[in-house]
């Protein structure tokens, strides 16, 4: 049975004795019985302040929308937004905080913004000389697989704060150790680890309840597919937002799903099947319009290569459909979203063809795998 970091608070009370405590959390901050991390902390320590990431404390705010400060109805505590005017805790926000904690379920993707929030908060803890505590949780897409190549420093953003692969294979606690040591944050870091979790586990194998980490990640299967199809956020192809199956559906009014599947046949992508579909998004791209495309069916997560799948889909679509386009930057002089998500501009510019891009990615992933092992807190199952 797995024991989450927050469920081991009794063993680490020395970190909080006589101190005012701040907690960065959201709806995923729950124990195995779905009790909130805030309520568990309040039973043991002087919890004074809450902080929320993208999507807000309840996880209901749409992606990219600024989150306001507020007050938590359950605890009565103030809630400071870290996805609005400020993405890094300020001195005023930390006025009643002597130790800052983080307890949020990540999805295992570099471009998921919760780890960027953690990175900013760690730097704030360093700036203000307060300890930073991470209550660890599983990587839901396992702690072994690494894929996607390294982000180039010039493409750093809030959807890619550090040069790590898209699929990094680390827990939030292990990422914090990597950020703190290898990338030089240097705060007073403490990781409250789990018990019973093993690196090869998918989230479904943990026996823990899945709480939506954001509105468009409703299932554990979505977390895998998100690693493949989130790249379409940087294109004029819908990534399925506004449908019942976000990130499992991709399409556009000008796309032909059967023709796309014909183009994918030669690639023999592992662990996934494709089905032609039509759908009408209720929000986001092509709201209210008929779209044609494909549904991704995950058949074996153990061999699925999501980044390879995503890159291959983009490559086939842009070679097959003249209407395909990468979206321009959101702001004048900014970088296109596709470059921020991929971590470089080699996919968009076709400076490297798919084969060469995947080959470079493979070598970078091997190097990162060796690096990340220095920060592992958990072992793989041995037979």
Would you give an account of this structure?
This protein has 383 residues and is an alpha/beta fold. It folds into two domains: 214 residues, Uncharacterised protein PF07075, DUF1343 (Rossmann fold), CATH 3.40.50.12170; 132 residues, Aspartate Aminotransferase, domain 1, CATH 3.90.1150. It has nine helices and ten strands. The strands form two sheets. Strands 3-4-2-1-5-6-7 form a seven-stranded mixed β-sheet. Helix 2 links the parallel strand 5 and strand 6. The radius of gyration is 21 Å and the shape is globular. The two termini are 19 Å apart.
Which terms summarize this structure?
383 residues; alpha/beta; Rossmann fold; Aspartate Aminotransferase, domain 1; 2 domains; 10 strands; globular
Largest sheet, described in full? Answer: 7 strands, mixed
Mean pLDDT: 97
What is the name of the CATH class of the largest domain? Alpha Beta
Q: Work out the number of β strands.
A: 10
- The helix-and-strand class reads alpha/beta
Shape designation: globular
The helix tally amounts to: 9
Which range best describes the helical content: under 10%, 10-25%, 25-40%, 40-55%, 55-70% or over 70%?
Answer: 10-25%
How far the N terminus sits from the C terminus, by CA atoms, comes to 19 Å
Query: At CATH's second level, what is the architecture of the largest domain?
Result: 3-Layer(aba) Sandwich
Count of structural domains = 2
Return the string of H and E elements: EHEEEEHEHEHEHEEHHHH
Q: Which strands sit side by side, in order, in the main sheet?
A: 3-4-2-1-5-6-7
Percentage of residues in strands = 5-15%
């Amino acid at each position: 049975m797995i024991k989450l970091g927050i469920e081991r608070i009794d063993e680490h009370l020395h970190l909080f004795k006589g101190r005012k405590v701040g907690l960065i959390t959201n709806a995923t901050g729950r124990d195995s019985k779905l009790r909130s991390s805030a309520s568990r902390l309040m039973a043991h320590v002087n919890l004074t302040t809450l902080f929320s990431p993208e999507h807000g404390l309840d996880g209901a705010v749409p992606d990219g929308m600024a989150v306001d400060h507020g007050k938590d109805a359950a605890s009565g505590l103030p809630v400071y937004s870290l996805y609005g005017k400020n993405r890094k805790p300020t001195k005023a926000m930390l006025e009643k905080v002597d130790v800052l904690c983080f307890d949020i379920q990540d999805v295992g993707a570099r471009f998921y913004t919760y780890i960027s929030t953690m990175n900013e908060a760690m730097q704030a803890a360093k700036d203000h000389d307060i300890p930073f505590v991470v209550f660890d949780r599983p990587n839901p897409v396992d702690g072994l697989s690494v894929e996607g190549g390294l982000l180039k420093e010039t493409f750093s953003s809030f959807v890619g704060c550090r040069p790590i692969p898209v699929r990094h294979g680390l827990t939030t606690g292990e990422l914090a150790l990597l950020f703190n040591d290898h990338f030089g944050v240097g705060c007073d870091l403490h990781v409250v680890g789990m018990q019973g979790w093993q690196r090869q586990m998918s989230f479904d194998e943990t026996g823990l309840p899945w709480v939506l980490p954001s509105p468009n990640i409703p299932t554990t299967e979505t977390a895998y597919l998100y690693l493949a199809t989130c790249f379409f956020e940087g294109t004029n192809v819908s990534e399925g937002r506004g449908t019942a199956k976000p990130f499992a559906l991709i399409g556009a009014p000008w796309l032909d799903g059967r023709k796309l599947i014909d183009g994918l046949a030669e690639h023999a992508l592992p662990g996934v099947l494709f089905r032609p579909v039509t759908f009408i998004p209720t929000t986001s791209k092509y709201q209210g319009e008929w779209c044609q495309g494909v549904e991704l069916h995950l058949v074996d997560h153990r061999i699925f290569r999501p980044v390879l799948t995503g890159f291959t889909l983009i490559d086939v679509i842009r070679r097959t459909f003249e209407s395909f386009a990468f979206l321009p930057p959101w702001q004048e002089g900014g970088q296109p979203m596709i470059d921020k998500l991929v971590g470089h501009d080699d996919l968009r510019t076709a400076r490297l063809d798919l084969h060469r891009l995947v080959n470079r990615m493979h070598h970078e992933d091997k190097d990162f795998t060796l690096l990340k092992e220095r920060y592992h807190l958990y072992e793989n199952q041995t037979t």
